[in-house]
Design a protein that fits this description.
Layout: H1 4-7, E1 47-53, H2 60-74, E2 78-84, H3 87-99, E3 106-110, H4 114-119, H5 127-132, E4 149-150, E5 153-154, E6 156-169, H6 170-175, H7 185-197, H8 209-222, H9 240-254, H10 266-273, E7 278-282, E8 296-299, E9 310-318, H11 327-342, E10 353-354, H12 357-360, H13 363-368, H14 373-377, E11 382-383, H15 391-406, H16 412-434
Parallel strand pairs: 1-2, 1-3, 9-11
Antiparallel strand pairs: 3-9, 4-5, 6-7, 6-8, 6-9, 6-10
């Protein structure tokens, strides 16, 4: 897989009050008296800030050290030390490290991991940090800021977003005489019919997470449904909207628009090989070097249902609640977070969109990375991860249902009903494990 997001493993405070005031004046950062000035600079004693992240592939191993080197050069009293490792290793190591007082001062987590950490008291309440740095929900795409909130406490600052999009092979489209990329159900079906007439199966549909699952989620929201009820105590992905969404996908196979039993990553490989025309995939594919010799174009996912909607992931900065956490280090870490967000334009090279509106609205971003435009257009109606501890294991049941339906083992309704029943059991177990 080509995504920094896709390469990570799905993972799982004693709240230290960080006294960075909303007024921005110099203020104590908890026990220890670290201070952040009105211009957002750390004014306390020299500190080393430990930063854990899972950006080990693609352009990130080059970009992250460069950003940290620049930050360190600009801040005489802060030295940031990065500890890159696989996402799976962070999931395995960080909870225990935090409890032992050996975790990082700042880290990056994915949106569906945040509640799991927060429920275990592994993260600091970052509300005062965010106020002190001058952030508000309006500084980021709609609803993504709220994904850092668990039980009315804000634990995170957004860093990046990664919406799904429609990738098209223009050479294949031309074979069927298609000159306009479809935008809705009628034009999409018309294009698939034209492609079928030209001997091309236009969209290869699979039952895997980074393509099929995210397409299904986009569709269920487009059909007016949701994955879970409001308090995430019950799965609702087997609703009428869910059945319509999965039936839409199985119809792709039944009507010959897609081959059956598409292998994992088979659809993106087919697009690159010229065997298909459309692929619903993440913005991270815009950095896929296999596209270099391809006549292709990105576009928003078509609106199949009654509502505009698209799946997106998100990543967030968090401040671990290490046993004995040094407040000066947390205060300095908060300054690092703000600086990184302010200087995140080049992060688009990794195939992720910077979350900060001020950066995405900079004309230089699209001037440098023009393929990002259709993904940015979708952020007004993007849907992000469900906020609930242990949700990753529950979401896995959705992927299982898709795989069973698309391989013909079960009809869409039965597959979703069975998966929802299992999901409800896991949700109940999660409530017992993490609390209501």
């Amino acid at each position: 897989m080509n995504s920094p997001w896709a390469r990570r493993a799905i993972g799982a405070g004693i709240a230290l009050a960080i006294g960075i005031t909303a007024s921005g004046c110099a203020a104590s950062a908890g026990t220890g008296g670290g201070a952040v000035s009105g211009d957002g600079e750390y004014t306390g004693p020299d500190v080393e800030v430990t930063f854990w992240h899972g950006w080990t592939g693609g352009a990130a191993p080059k970009i992250v050290p460069e950003l940290i080197e620049e930050f360190n050069a600009e801040h005489d009293n802060i030295t940031v030390k990065a500890v890159p490792q696989e996402w799976a290793d962070i999931t395995a190591k960080m909870p225990l490290a935090i409890k032992a007082g050996k975790g990082p001062d700042v880290a990056v987590l994915h949106g569906d991991d945040l509640a799991t950490y927060a429920a275990q008291n592994l993260l600091l309440d970052s509300g005062e940090i965010i106020d002190g740095l001058g952030y508000a929900a309006e500084d980021f795409p709609p609803t993504v800021f709220d994904k850092g909130n668990y039980q009315d406490t804000q634990y995170a600052v957004p860093w990046s977003v990664t919406p799904l999009g429609l990738f098209t092979n223009k050479t294949v489209l031309a074979k069927a005489g298609i000159t306009e990329i479809p935008t809705d159900e009628a034009s999409y079906l018309a294009a698939l019919d034209a492609l079928k007439g030209a001997g091309v199966q236009g969209e290869w549909v699979d039952g895997y997470v980074f393509t099929g699952t995210f397409e299904f989620q986009s569709l269920i929201w487009q059909f007016g449904g949701d994955l879970y009820n409001d308090d995430v105590t019950e799965a609702t992905f087997n609703s009428e909207a869910g059945v319509k969404a999965l039936t839409w996908m199985t119809d792709m196979v039944d009507k010959g628009y897609s081959p059956a039993n598409v292998a994992q990553d088979g659809n993106i490989k087919a697009l690159i090989a010229g065997d298909t025309a459309f692929n619903w995939n993440g913005v991270w594919q815009t950095t896929n070097t296999a596209f270099d010799d391809l006549e292709w174009a990105p576009a928003p996912v078509p609106q199949i249902g009654e509502e505009k909607a698209v799946w997106s992931s998100s990543t967030h900065w968090v401040f671990p609640s290490n046993k004995g956490q040094d407040a000066n280090e947390t205060a300095a870490a908060s300054v690092f977070v703000k600086w990184m967000n302010d200087n995140s334009l080049g992060w688009a090279e990794t195939g992720e969109l910077p979350a900060a509106n001020s950066v995405r609205e900079d004309p230089e971003l699209l001037s440098t990375y023009p393929n990002l435009e259709p993904f940015m257009e979708q952020l007004d109606y993007a849907h992000y991860e469900t906020v609930s501890p242990g949700i990753s294991e529950v979401n896995a049941q959705i992927t299982l249902a898709l795989n069973e339906a698309l391989t013909g083992k079960k009809d869409p309704k039965t597959a979703l009903d069975d998966a929802a029943a299992k999901a409800d059991q896991i949700l109940e177990q999660n409530r017992a494990k993490y609390g209501d």
